[in-house]
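Q: Could you fold this chain for me?
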Amino acid sequence: MSQSRLSSFIEAVINIIIGFSINFTANWLVFPLFGWQISTTDNLLLGAIYTAISLIRSYTIRRWFNARIHKAASQLAGDAP
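A: Sure. Below is the predicted structure, expressed as structure tokens.
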């Protein structure tokens, strides 16, 4: 059974929310170790940019894998040439 586009999107969003939280906390903890000081606003903006990139990446990869799995299953079932 194929995963719907909506399910792929929801999975990607949940993954991104978790990733954003980890990224924000990591920036807050790691940047000072390198002498980099950024404001909370800058940290949120940086996180938002990387979140948008990650959302697109996650959704695209999920749909690509889903299509490959669906195609392979169809071929095994004899539905495709």
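A (continued): The longest helix spans residues 40-77.
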